[in-house]
Amino acid sequence: MTGHHRTPVTVIGLGSMGSALAEAFIDAGHRTTVWNRTPSKAELLVSKGAVHAQTVDEAVAASPLIIACLTTYENTIEALEPGVATLKGRALVSLNSGSPAGARQMAEWTLGHGARYLDGAIKNVPSAVGAEDTLLYYGGDNTVFDEFASTLRVLGGDTVYLGTDADLAALYEMAVGGTLLPALVGFFQGAAAVQARGIEVASMVRFSIKWFEMINSVLPVFAEEIDRGDYSRPASSVNLFLAGAAHDEELGKEANLDMEWHKPFHDLLKRAVEAGYGDHSISALTEILKNPAPNA
């Protein structure tokens, strides 16, 4: 298939991720139109074959498929407002961050201007765009996904359609993404602890990777426990985790670390014990999270 038969695509927003998306379309032979508030961000892409639209209206008019990659849904609407007259009859795919409520509002705004809407999320870094194992998932208008599935797969081989609800990608994005900051802060704490002993952080990376692999291996078990609502056969109990809280405090004193970020987790453990889950699986914390503390 030559580039002349490939779907023309417009990419709105040329940060590091947006630029990576545009480059993937260019490399795959799609006529790619780009626009960004700062025109200089389009220069490298133009040198690789992109068409630089001078206005949002021109960018939207150039393609039947519009990919918006800005920071938030609010940013996306603000950027597209000047081109709403041209948006009618086109397909808009938004790949920004935001809440499920934001995705629903974005879908309503898009439909109100006569366009079809698909909401998506990229579960990787810009350098991974286009790779066979890069995951992207989408929710919203199934006709958009069906029509442009082969075009969207240019961005990542592991492309998944979640369903017709426009907020599904944002829901999964937040549900899955909730593990990121605690995991990173845990790694950074470990980095500070080994540095306090004069040891290079690079020395712990191999062990941290193994630890994350172990966590990966138990997620299906936890998911099954949570779906059944049965936490009675624990591999690791809430009491076991709570007993480890004292070790966190000891490490903080020894390495002179700020351990305040652990307190909310310790509070969750204590509430689980008070609720009768002490001897149950650590996954029982899910039940505690469903009932926020009164002062939360």
UniProtKB/TrEMBL annotation:
Would I find Oxidoreductase among this entry's keywords? yes
Quote the InterPro entries the UniProt record gives.
6PGD_dom2, 6PGDH_NADP-bd, HIBADH-related, HIBADH-related_NP60_sf, NAD(P)-bd_dom_sf, RedAm-like_C
Domain named 6-phosphogluconate dehydrogenase NADP-binding: residues: 9-163
Boundaries of every NADPH-dependent reductive aminase-like C-terminal domain copy: 165-290
The UniProt keyword set, sorted, is: Oxidoreductase
Q: Which Gene3D superfamilies match?
A: N-(1-d-carboxylethyl)-l-norvaline Dehydrogenase, domain 2 (1.10.1040.10), NAD(P)-binding Rossmann-like Domain (3.40.50.720)
One Pfam family, short name please? NAD_binding_2
> What family does the entry list?
Belongs to the HIBADH-related family.
Name of the protein: NAD(P)-binding domain-containing protein
Species this chain originates from: Streptomyces shaanxiensis
Organism classification: Bacteria, Bacillati, Actinomycetota, Actinomycetes, Kitasatosporales
